[in-house]
Amino acid sequence: LILFDEIKKAHPDVFNLLLQILDDGRLTDSHGRTVDFRNTVIILTSNLGSPLILEGIQKGLPYERIREEVFAILQKHFRPEFLNRLDEVVVFRPLSREQIRQIVEIQLAHLRARLSEKRITLELTEAAKDFLAERGYDPVFGARPLRRVIQRELETPLAQKILAGEVREGDRVTVDAGPTGLVFQTAERLVA
């Protein structure tokens, strides 16, 4: 599996290499060495058409119509010989608020696992989770802003509290949403 993220930013030589790979299923260098790509899945991503997708969904346009309009944008940006070699063009729908909320839960599970190594328990109220999901929601950029919001609003302040000794091994930290941001409350656990 090979992923080319943001393929629209690639140098033109990359497309020449991709044409060779997509045509022959292999790539040969100037020394005659060959790399076989026949059992490889190549995924290319791009944000081309993102505003159009968002606008189309907001207007309630059918998925097929949005897909056709996005493909028209791709045709303006990429050469026909490149597009004709692609097996499939998949147009993803923007993440919903509910999906962002699920991603918050996944990110929190990772953070809790890291904190459990220090025997620190982390609990977030529903309001705190909603706060993170709301701040991290961007239908155009997906979940990328969410990761930064969790780092800025939750992880960094929590790390500062650990370094300052306000949160120690064995503590239980409860996080809630306040009027200006997240509010941290620490309680000592009984250590057996």
UniProtKB/TrEMBL annotation:
Keywords: ATP-binding, Nucleotide-binding. One of its GO terms (cellular component) is cytoplasm. It comes from the Bacteria. GO terms for biological process: cellular response to heat. The keyword Membrane does not apply. Pfam families: AAA_2 (PF07724), ClpB_D2-small (PF10431). The keyword Disulfide bond does not apply. InterPro entries: ATPase_AAA_core (IPR003959), Clp_ATPase_C (IPR019489), ClpA/B (IPR001270), ClpA_ClpB (IPR050130), P-loop_NTPase (IPR027417). GO terms for molecular function: ATP binding; ATP hydrolysis activity. SUPFAM superfamilies: P-loop containing nucleoside triphosphate hydrolases. Residues 95-184 form the Clp ATPase C-terminal domain. This is Type VI secretion system ATPase TssH. The lineage of its organism: Bacteria, Thermotogati, Deinococcota, Deinococci, Thermales.
